[in-house]
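Forum: Protein Structure Q&A
Topic: Joint prediction for protein chains with partners

I've read a bunch of threads here and the consensus seems to be that you should model interacting components together rather than docking separate models afterwards. I'd like to see that in practice. Below is the full input, 518 residues plus whatever partners are listed. Could one of the regulars post the assembled result?
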Amino acid sequence: MTARPRTRALALAGAAALTMALTACASEAGNGDTAAPAEDPGAEAPAAGDFPEGSTMAELAEAGEVTIGTKFDQPGFGLLNPSTNTPEGFDVEIAKIIAAELGIDEDGITWTETVSANREPFIQEGRVDYVVATYTINDERKEIIDFAGPYYIAGQDIMVAAGNPLGIEGPEDLAGTTTCSVEGSTPAENIRTNYPDAELTLFDVYSKCAEALKNGQVDSVTTDNVILLGLVAQDPEAFELVENPFTEEPYGIGLAKGDDDFRTFINDVLEASFEDGRWAEAWDATAGQFAETPEPPQVDRY
Amino acid sequence: MQAILENRELFWSGFVTTLSLSVVAALLAFVLGTLLAAFRVSPFPPLQGLAVVYVEAVRNTPLTVVWFFMVFALPLLGLGLPTFFIAGVLALGLYTAAFVCEAVRSGINAVSAGQAEAARAIGLTFTQTLRFVVLPQALRTVVPPLGNQWIALTKNSSIGAAFAITEITAVAQRLSNTNPAQVVQIFLGAALAYLAITLTSGGLLGVLERRVAVLR
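Posted by a regular:
Agreed with the consensus. Here's the joint model:
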């Protein structure tokens, strides 16, 4: 199971190194008076000079370093690998695709753990350059930060004990049972508002919800399907997914409010990656182990 | 502050939960801690040993680990607790008891040996000596350190937010998600709620300390 993604990662790293070597040659050759090649973010060699002066892209490309916020506890999307001390998952791969377009390789990336409650403050304080952390786009958040993407549409679903002893098929069946989620999360708010007959048990991380479900302290766990799939994948004998998503959660990339150039740049990169297969490749290597490859979403350039 | 005012009922219920969790846990910690201190000074080695092992094991374990044990390990041993609130009371109470024991023991050591000798000379048993002569004097001297333990316990109760208790920190997290623009104000409000508890009790403890002070 692990061998395949690792080989891929190596192959990707190799490809990246090759690209950079080519880049070096290309930019030297480009020092002459030949016209600049046509805009094509997928293939063109990224360098600081390629970006408008003073833009976030130019600054980051010049520094060769970027600080990215992601989750460290979400299998398939952002999960810290203790042996390498770096996170792994779909969010991480998306973040790397954007960094690569800035000419920054993995060594130039500083990963910062962002949990649900501190994503906006970290962006506002400039402690991270952008956040890829199963981050649902919504209007309240758009008031203080901006979102590129979406790069994925998740949906809230329900995880039950294997065999589904209570026969829970959808959110209506949660009435009179205890369901577990994370305090301060969008799925918890949704249950509280739209399915008030369900009793909520709220921890700080989903791994505790899984443990509580295993112990019989709660009847189900509810949050975005991809997070639940990660939990099922960790213990397929104890859990199963209802597979009846009842919301649409567009995952976006959070960045500083008002940085429209950077937002447009990330949206361009995302669209290019949808087209040229890097997006699907990132999915297959990570969350694709638990779910089929979905259709890429439509980027929302608001 | 607007988010807090709009959700004042929720905020208030979180405050009440923090307060009740802390008070019940503190009562448990005080009773168990005093009992453990009595064990430590008892003439019966197995009881002394029991108290030493308890204090060293519990005070050297992070509270989060103790709490995790109460919530997730006990059910595996077939000893699941009925509610997460009770698990929280036990985690906080059993943890703080170790520190209370040490505070009370220091108070016992502060009572001069002549007092216990005189008590024994007039025929009091160990239990009687402790109950009528030593502990009343010891407890008077340990009001300040016990006050510290109470304040620490109140703030430690915020770990309950991570273990399914909707206390003031959990409420702050919930409100900060629905009002991302007011995160700082919301957590400032939570901090003020803790201050309301600790500053008030600090004042009361000061009064108590003066009332019961041993005149020397």
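The domain at 156-241 of chain A is CATH 3.40.190.10 (D-Maltodextrin-Binding Protein; domain 2).
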